[in-house]
């Protein structure tokens, strides 16, 4: 990292090509290496749009919001817009680490909402693609984090606030205790065999310190979890996947497995059954599949 800092201090702030080359080298040295081309493509398109306004280093949150609107007006799908926002946030996060910008202007820019009859969840095929991407990286920490959302339905804030003693894993059973869920609600969620194996592997590798540390050894942040999920979604060629998508998938999987709706609500920490009932409604994917069955082609 220090080598990059020294290099960046030597280049002019308006030398965009050198800046992007340095960013590419950074990506190739991190767990984003496989998606470097995608990140760079998104950033180059943003830089082309931004050209003539000011130095790229002077971009403000308003500029990022304007670019989001520009992409929408071009007719880009929400998934494409949101992917671009992730790339821009990663880029400016890196510039902030290099002390080249005072803050990350994309940090708090909201993603574009997707329409649909039911929450977006991952199909079995998409879930398999995500898990394959995880296994290719062989990161027990990331597997444990994703398993808590995909197999236990935890919210991202619940994952980052989880304490080591709140996870119980036995040979035949296990559970995770959420002491301060949404609305400060307490709940215990059983862990299935798949989740227990993923989490146990990480606990064996990381017996001390923060349960889920970032690369600096500090507890991982919610933004860090968003970035982890976005990275593996890139690799799995899945669009618009967030931590909440994994939670939605947990609820959908539970309903499809025949678990009573009140039990699903209890595990997910829903305050009302009508929230859980959304997962019994058809999704956009369900309707598309139904329409394809009616096709003459």
Give a quick summary of the entry.
Helices cover 55% and strands 4% of the residues. By secondary structure, the chain is mainly alpha-helical. Helix 2 (16-28) packs antiparallel against helix 3 and helix 4 (61-73) packs antiparallel against helix 5.
Verbal overview:
The protein is mostly helical and 297 residues long. The chain is built from 14 helices and 3 strands. It has helices at 2-10, 16-28, 36-50, 61-73, 78-97, 124-137, 140-150, 156-160, 193-205, 222-235, 243-256, 261-268, 273-276, 284-293, and strands spanning 167-169, 174-178, 187-190. Strands 1-2-3 form a 3-stranded antiparallel beta sheet. Helix 2 (16-28) packs antiparallel against helix 3 (36-50) and helix 11 packs antiparallel against helix 12. The radius of gyration is 21 Å and the shape is globular. The termini are far apart. The relative contact order is 0.11. Mean pLDDT is 85; it is low at 1-13.
């Amino acid at each position: 990292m220090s080598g990059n800092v020294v290099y960046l201090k030597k280049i002019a702030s308006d030398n965009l090509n050198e800046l992007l080359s340095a960013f590419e080298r950074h990506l190739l040295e991190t767990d984003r290496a496989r998606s470097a081309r995608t990140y760079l493509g998104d950033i180059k398109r943003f830089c082309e749009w931004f050209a003539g306004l000011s130095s790229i280093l002077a971009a403000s949150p308003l500029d990022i919001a304007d670019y989001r609107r520009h992409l929408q007006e071009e007719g880009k799908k929400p998934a494409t817009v949101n992917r671009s926002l992730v790339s821009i946030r990663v880029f400016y996060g890196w510039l902030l680490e290099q002390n080249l910008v005072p803050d990350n202007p994309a940090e708090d820019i909201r993603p574009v909402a997707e329409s649909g009859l039911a929450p977006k969840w991952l199909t079995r095929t998409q879930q398999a693609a995500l898990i394959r991407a995880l296994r290719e990286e062989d990161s027990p920490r990331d597997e444990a984090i994703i398993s808590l959302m995909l197999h236990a339905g935890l919210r991202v804030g619940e994952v980052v606030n989880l304490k080591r003693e709140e996870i119980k894993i036995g040979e035949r059973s296990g559970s995770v205790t959420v002491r301060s869920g949404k609305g400060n609600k307490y709940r215990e969620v059983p862990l299935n065999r798949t989740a227990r194996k993923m989490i146990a592997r990480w606990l064996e590798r990381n017996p001390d310190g923060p349960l889920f540390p970032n690369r600096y050894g500090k507890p991982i942040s919610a933004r860090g979890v968003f970035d982890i999920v976005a990275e593996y979604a890139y690799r799995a060629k899945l669009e618009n996947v967030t931590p909440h998508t994994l939670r939605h998938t947990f609820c959908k999987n539970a309903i499809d497995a025949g678990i009573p709706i009140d039990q699903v609500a209890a595990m997910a920490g829903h305050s009302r059954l009508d929230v859980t009932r959304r997962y019994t409604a058809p999704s956009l994917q369900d309707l598309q599949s139904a329409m394809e069955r009616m096709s003459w082609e």
